[in-house]
Protein 1
Amino acid sequence: MNNYYKHLASVDQEVYSYVKMELERQRNTIGLIASENYASLAVLEALATPLNNKYAEGYPNKRYYAGNKIIDSIESIAIDRVKKLFDAEHANVQPHAGATANMSVYLATLNLGDKILALELAHGGHLTHGSNVNFSGAAYKFVHYHLDKETGLIDFEEVRKLALEHKPKMILCGYSAYPRKIDFKRFREIADEVNAILFADIAHIAGLVAGKAHENPFPYADIVSSTTHKTLRGPRGAIILCKEKFAKAIDKAVFPGTQGGPFEHCIAAKAVCFKEALQPEFKEYTRQIVKNAQAMAEEFINLGYSLVTNGTDNHLLLVDLVKSKLKVFGKEAQEKLESVGIICNRNMVPYDTRSPFDPSGIRLGTPMITTRNMKESESRYIAELVDKTLKTESKTELERIHENVLDLSSKFPLYKDLVL
Ligand SMILES: Cc1ncc(COP(=O)(O)O)c(C=O)c1O
């Protein structure tokens, strides 16, 4: 078989060799980062096309430059497919990333300084949901709701109380580290009471929504943003979906509001990803993601661990290492796991008393292992390997666990057709 990247190899050995090393790293580790996935080779091929070369400022049939008829067809296919996938009235497929998508949503609907009610970052929200180190916190006035201290679930009483008190122009739901289902209807009811726009950022759960393993935010939400590279398993990038009434404002906010020329090669790859997500197999895939997360959660609980909300309904679990009475915390746990080839990220837990740099928890997700065809038994086995890693001090034991990780990885090969 030909070398997949033969031109890259001949022009730039340095970059090529790092690509090769990164591919090997992905093949030989167990990826548990809840926000990552392995896009298909079809998606990766679409990214590496001459569509990269075209400037297409504007929208299909309304471009500023000539030569865009074919590009128009591609972007229109992406729009049609994603509208079907999420039952959306309008779609913009141009956002380069989740962060710029959210920036565009705010720009389209709010004035600077307007109030937004969103989940506290440390409880599972995202930087673009009002963190003071992010543009969102600087440009808008965020009021934050929290998770219930006992249950770890969204405290709807507080959401309603804060909504009635502050009368926000927008209510935001959708999170980076929340292991339970989101009750969009309940948010809609509260938004209606105060006449707020309901914005759902489903960056994490979009794949589950597409595969019907999580409820669709439509018809409850007015606007929905999402990344395309997490559970949706597409290229890096994002989308904004909305009710027709917001369509013009959203399109204007993306271009020329926050972006210039769209990345049409990414848009082609998004179209491929949407096609894949429309297939019946994708439903199976997303159900398996949840089954794997639940099996992993169950195993952790059997091993005596404490999980935020005591389990999961979606693709991720949050392990509270402090409540689990472990001697390692977020930073060391992440590093120790990396040393045996298990890749995850440290994470704050609700009401964390430790710092974001070395928080009390780790976040574990199953989208990647599920893409590699692992099932419940492998998910349980991975929980055991995590447990052994966190509890041992022995170098030989850690080496043995690393062997187990390599063995498991080789049984579930990644990108078999990619020959470098
Ligand atoms: C809920 C949520 N929104 C937005 C984003 C931002 O996406 P990006 O990293 O593509 O800017 C993320 C990324 O993790 C996220 O979790």
Protein 2
Amino acid sequence: MRRPTIAAGAVAVALLAFLVAGCGGGKTVGAVPDTVVGTLATTPSPDASLPALTLKGDATAGKQVFASGGCGGCHTLKDSAATGNVGPNLDSTKPAFELVVTRVSLGKSPMPAFSKAKGGQLEDQQIADVAQYVSTVAGH
Ligand code: HEC
């Protein structure tokens, strides 16, 4: 939720600069509207920031992602023979696809963000895959 706030702030600043320029009489102001256009994301749908939500995951591929991604170091998941206890036991919480995509994409300290867009190591498709896997096998 930080970006929209920043964008709104930028708009406010630009608007203010515009108003000041209007009253001040002809001084060139740095904050031209062009500066704002790029950051002015229209109210983003959840899908816009989490592309993996729009993809169909493959649970078999996701099992590999779970193993190679190091998820088991922090999470317990019986299907993957994972016994980590830093994060929640996924067999107990049985997270839905959407929650796995969200956590894996964005992280939640101390869990790191895995999305490449966030500096992580997983492609959107891999995130969809691991989410499909976890949401399917958790609790079984
Ligand atoms: C460094 C340890 C660590 C690693 C690695 C890690 N997680 Fe997590 N994970 C956590 C912690 C801690 C939380 C709890 C965050 C919170 O809600 O405060 C969490 C939360 C979650 C949740 C939400 C669980 C719930 O029911 O609230 C899911 C789903 C999840 N992780 C999946 C994964 C997957 C899949 C991977 C591998 C791609 C992974 N995690 C890697 C530590 C980790």
